[in-house]
């Protein structure tokens, strides 16, 4: 890393990055973030999670200082409250819903729409609770098709489902995360990096002056587009070569370790 370059914005994934294994932001990490913000550095939280989940996990003091990028970039809330929402076409989401229903996989699909989670069966939560904060609202297939989908979630998909979904790579953004237990599907060209780029453009910040932190494949686009990228020590092994550097794990305050070094270098 070029120590003489001033970092103007910091982007953080949550799970496996800013959150430790207990899903908590440590005091050390929070202090490092607040010191960075107070020095004039912009903060972005970029996560696959919905806003309601982030609001429960991130202290209000920190939320008030950061722009939020949710659903891997499909929903963005600027620090002053303005929002941007991007959804999958009803035709494309309808095809996914029809396929899952016709192949007895209705328990394995849910949809995030404007900060609410919907599913077709109570079994969806029973089988996949670790991926959800609260049980989803249960609706009929026809109602599910009508919803503006920021993100479609497919859980523990067999190869037949994955093969079907991958036919739509030209129309949709498809990312596998959580050790490939979860397929996350958004509108075409939706990504964390696109959302960060849009925010930075409004703030007159070059992407070369942005540092991103992450651990999973939905962070790859950030690693490729930000001037500096940091892979957590617990990151997917295949992801680490794409990062500028590697830090300690999320249980060892890996984020804070990098930020503290930046503070010394730049005299924040």
Automatic annotation (TrEMBL):
For molecular function, the Gene Ontology terms on record are:
magnesium ion binding; phosphatase activity
Tell me where the signal peptide lies: none
| Any single GO CC term annotated in Swiss-Prot or TrEMBL for this entry | cytosol
Q: Which UniProt keywords apply?
A: Hydrolase
Sorted alphabetically, which InterPro entries does this protein's record hold? Cof (IPR000150), HAD-like_sf (IPR036412), HAD-SF_hydro_IIB (IPR006379), HAD_sf (IPR023214)
Question: Is Calcium set as a keyword in this record?
Answer: no
Please report the name of this protein according to its UniProt entry.
Cof subfamily of IIB subfamily of haloacid dehalogenase superfamily/HAD-superfamily hydrolase, subfamily IIB
The source organism is: Sporolactobacillus nakayamae
The organism that produces this protein has a lineage beginning with: Bacteria, Bacillati, Bacillota, Bacilli, Bacillales
């Amino acid at each position: 890393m070029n120590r003489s370059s001033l970092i103007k914005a910091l982007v953080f994934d949550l799970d496996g990055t800013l959150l430790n294994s207990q899903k908590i932001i440590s005091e050390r990490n929070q202090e490092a973030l607040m010191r960075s913000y107070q020095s004039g550095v912009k903060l972005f939280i970029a996560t696959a999670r919905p806003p309601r989940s982030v609001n429960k996990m991130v202290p209000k003091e920190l939320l008030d200082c950061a722009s939020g990028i949710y659903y891997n970039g499909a929903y963005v809330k600027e620090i002053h409250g303005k929002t941007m929402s991007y959804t999958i076409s009803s035709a494309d989401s309808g095809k996914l819903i029809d396929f899952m229903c016709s192949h007895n996989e209705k328990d394995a699909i849910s949809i995030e729409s404007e900060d609410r989670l919907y599913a077709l069966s109570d079994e969806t939560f029973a089988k996949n609770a670790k991926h959800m904060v609260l049980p989803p609202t249960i609706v009929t297939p026809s109602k599910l098709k009508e919803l503006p989908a920021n993100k479609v979630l497919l859980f523990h998909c067999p190869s037949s489902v994955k093969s079907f979904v991958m036919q739509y790579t030209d129309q949709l953004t498809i990312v596998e995360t959580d050790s490939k237990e979860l397929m996350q599907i958004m509108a075409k060209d939706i990504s964390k990096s696109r959302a960060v780029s849009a925010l930075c453009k409004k703030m007159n910040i070059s992407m070369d002056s942005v540092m991103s932190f992450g651990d999973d494949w939905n962070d790859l686009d950030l690693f490729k587009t930000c001037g500096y990228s940091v892979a957590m020590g617990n990151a997917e092994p295949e992801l680490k070569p794409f990062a500028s550097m590697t830090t300690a794990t999320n249980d060892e305050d890996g984020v804070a370790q990098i930020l503290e070094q930046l503070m010394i270098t730049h005299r924040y």
